[in-house]
Design a protein that fits this description.
alpha/beta, Rossmann fold, 2 domains, 7-stranded parallel beta sheet, 6-stranded parallel beta sheet, 15 helices, globular
Length: 358
Amino acid sequence: MKICFFADSESIHTARWCEHFHSLGHEVHLISFKTLILPNIHNHTVNLEKINVAGGNWKVLLKFRTVRKIVKDISPDIFHSLYATSYGITGSLVGFHPYIITALGSDILLSPKQSKIYCFLLKFAFSKTDLITVMSDQMKMETEKLGVSPAKIITLPFGIDPKMFNAKNRKLDKNKFVITSTRNFEEVYNIPHLIKAVAKAKEKIPSIHLNLIGTGTEELTLKELVKQLHLEECVTFFGKVPQSKIAEVLNQSHVFVSVSLSDGNNISLNEAMACDTLCIATNIPANTQWIQHNKNGFLVEINAVDALVDYLVIAAEKYDELQQSALPINRRLLEEKGIWANNMKRMEDIYEELILKK
């Protein structure tokens, strides 16, 4: 099978999809507006100025003719865009079939609500697809609100690789209470909420330490906040690290925290669950499909800093008791719907079905 992805080459999601299908023996091509070259696949870069992660990248639509020519030269069996707005909308103008769009979160949950133009363009793009995949039932409902038939949408969480994310090397420092976030430094992930909570929790948990793994446009602001709150000695900024390092840090962490304002499906949460890290996350649909409050973790309301402080203190005081309840639930949930290879086998079968219908 010859698969052509149209996606951000700098995204970990893109790398995972490309590497996986290459490993299965398929011929994989990637067309991207980013210049990063992924190994083992056929890379095609469409020259473009820097893309703003916050949106407003209208100029990408003007490149559809260039993308169309590349797709025609490749002549793939499947054309698949990852991310519904920039790549998905542009890909819909190419006119190739079978065409799939995978929505990742904000492209469906936020963009259509923030802009009538985005709403109109997404409706157009979805009308040109053969299939749309989303990462949660909430995303499916939001996609249906754009006039898409439910029969055209499938819910497909990405899931984790248990060979990479597991608790085999789990080892906690008895002299520290370690909290880790692996969310990028963008406004939607609301990292200041977590930093402020750690500053308050430090009064009751003197051994508290916060690991921040990620990069983004808010990095300097976050580092300044850490200084203002005098947390330099108990906060570590890791930057962007490979998945193996993320797994290593999670295995040395008592608690994983995600306080994002919106999510499609919180893969970072799944990775933490697989490493037996106790999870606290915002009370949004992306997280409620994985966390049962006070059973296998805690759900906290958006911007409820004091509530997050309370949950961190409870976690520190009753850690072993909480884990006894959480671990069996987490392992069952991941086995049922959170394994990457199982979910990608389903995607491979869908590719083959669409090709037969072509």
